[in-house]
Recover the amino acids of this structure.
């Protein structure tokens, strides 16, 4: 699981985390693994457009959610290698 902020950092903040969200949204559903991008709290930000879809896709991959609907980023989060 990557966060919008992590992706922003990867591109040297040429897009803000919000900008990354817009780019992911514009990319098309089958072009990138969009469902693996979550907010900084481990929450889903796509429920307005696709209620329940992102969570269902992640759960099929074995990702667990807590009572508040968040993912434990320590356990499931992506940790990129240092450059």
């Amino acid at each position: 699981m990557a966060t919008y902020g992590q992706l922003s950092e990867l591109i040297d903040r040429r897009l803000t985390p919000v900008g990354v969200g817009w780019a992911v949204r514009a990319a098309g559903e089958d072009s990138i693994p969009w469902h693996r991008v979550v907010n900084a709290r481990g929450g889903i930000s796509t429920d307005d457009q696709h209620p329940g879809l992102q969570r269902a896709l992640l759960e099929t991959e074995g990702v667990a959610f807590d009572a508040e609907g968040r993912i434990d980023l320590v356990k499931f989060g992506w940790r990129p290698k240092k450059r």
User: Anything to note?
Assistant: The mean pLDDT is 93. The radius of gyration is 12 Å. The longest helix spans residues 17-26. The domain at 2-76 is CATH 1.10.10.10 (Arc Repressor Mutant, subunit A).
